[in-house]
Structure formats: C-alpha cells, structure tokens
Design a protein that fits this description.
The complex is a heterodimer of chains A (113) and B (119). Chain A has no helices and 13 strands. With 113 residues, chain A is mainly beta. Chain A is globular. Chain A starts with a strand and ends with a strand. The mean pLDDT of chain A is 97. Chain B has no helices and eleven strands. With 119 residues, chain B is mainly beta. Helices cover 0% and strands 50% of the residues of chain B. The chains are: A mainly beta (113), B mainly beta (119). Chains A and B meet through β7 and β12 of A and β5 and β10 of B.
C-alpha cells in the first residue's frame, strides 16, 4: 500500500495569513500515461464527512474558494490556503488514488492562532 | 441534488456482525462506483473497499478480506456494507463515498454511521 505522510500534524495560523500543509507519498503517484498526479485534498470539519477540495494535485473542485491551491508532483505535494478565514478551521487530509487501496495521510489539524 | 443517506448508529457486542445501508439519490445509481471508508474516534480515514453498483462486483482492502461484504440493491439505489467478527477496534464512523468519474476521488459522502463495539 502507498503510505501518505503529512506534515505538520497540527498548525496554528493567524487570520489572513498563509497556511501550508505538506504531503509525501511513499512512491510516486504521477502516472506516466497522462502525466497526472493522482493526489487529492479533503477538508473535514467536526461532525461532518470529508469534503473534496482539490484533485489531480492542483485542480479545485467546483465551488471551492480560490484561496485554496494545490501544488507538487511525484511524491511531494502541498496544500496552501493563501489567506486563512475562520471557516477554514478543520482537519485536512491528502489522499492518493493511484493504487488501490486508496490511502490517506494522517491528517493536519488547522487552527487559528 | 446528489444525496447519500446512511442508516443509523449501531451498537454490537464483540464477535457480532453489523450491516449498514447507504441510499443514493439525485443521480444514476449504476453509473458511479461506491466506496466505504471508516474513521475511528479521533483517527484518520481508511478505505474498506469498493462496489460497482452496475455489475455488483467488489474489491476489498486486503486487511478486511474475509470480514467485509458489500452488496447493492438496484431497485432501491442502495448499497450495503456488512462487517463481521467485530472487535473494539472496529468502533468507528463508517462512510459511503461516491467515486467520481474521471478523477477517481470521492465527490459525495454519506453523513456517516457510528458503529460501537462494546461488551
């Protein structure tokens, strides 16, 4: 199974500041056939299911604010929130869908400083 | 609008089985694969397996093989996940999640079903 490792485990950022979450996969999730990274990001708020934010490592899901962006390739990826809003407090997960079983990172808890 | 509505919370004793349902609406049921994902209290997300609602074919994560069974009823647009030989480590919220076409990510999720295993 592909192991996904996120850093940091928790993060406190001031409102309006940038938040950066990293995700590393144990093997490349870049598919040579289409040059796409099979990497997604989800946001989970307390008591709710996860919500899809980004797929193909950098494509925002419809309706996701443009302050959320994803980058990276191969084994190293980043989720960036350009200007933190109060409603962004949540746990963020990366997920690979390159191989089954699809696997998730352990999560990064984002709080307001 | 797409909705996945799961059955309610369950309490089971160790060694028992549990069967959870997930009723889909707002889209063509047989056109999208469905996954089951669980989340233990305060923990991360773990995939149990996938079902193709059209063919009924399944693929289970290795560590759950022999214990998990996924089925579907096309007449009611419902998928089911049954987990047997429960232990306390199976206490978790179980989600059904629709897999999108194109990017094989989970674009819609059920609200979750809490399964508590306790003697």
């Amino acid at each position: 199974d592909i192991v996904m490792t996120q850093s940091p485990d928790s993060l406190a950022v001031s409102l309006g500041e940038r938040a950066t979450i990293n995700c590393k996969s144990s093997q490349s999730v870049l598919h040579s056939s289409n040059n796409r990274n099979y990497l997604a990001w989800y946001q989970q708020k307390p008591g709710q299911p996860p919500k899809l934010l980004i797929y193909w490592a950098s494509t925002r899901e419809s309706g996701v604010p443009d302050r959320f962006s994803g980058s990276g390739s191969g084994t190293d990826f980043t989720l960036t929130i350009s200007s933190l809003q109060a409603e962004d407090v949540a746990v963020y997960y990366c997920q690979q869908y390159y191989n089954t079983p699809y696997t998730f990172g352990q999560g990064t808890k984002l709080e307001i400083k | 609008q797409v909705q996945l509505v799961q059955s309610g919370a369950e309490v089971r004793k160790p060694g028992a089985s549990v069967k959870i349902s997930c009723k889909a609406s707002g889209y063509t049921f047989t056109s999208y694969y469905m996954h089951w994902v669980r989340q233990a209290p305060g923990q991360g997300l773990e995939c149990l397996g996938i079902i193709n609602p059209s063919a009924g074919s399944t693929s289970y994560t290795q560590r759950f093989k022999g214990r998990v069974t996924m089925t579907r009823d096309t007449s009611t647009s419902t998928v089911y996940m049954e987990l047997s030989s429960l232990t306390s480590e199976d206490t978790a919220v179980y989600y059904c999640a629709r897999r999108a076409t194109g990017a094989q990510v989970f674009d819609y999720w059920g609200q979750g079903t809490l399964v508590t295993v306790s003697s």
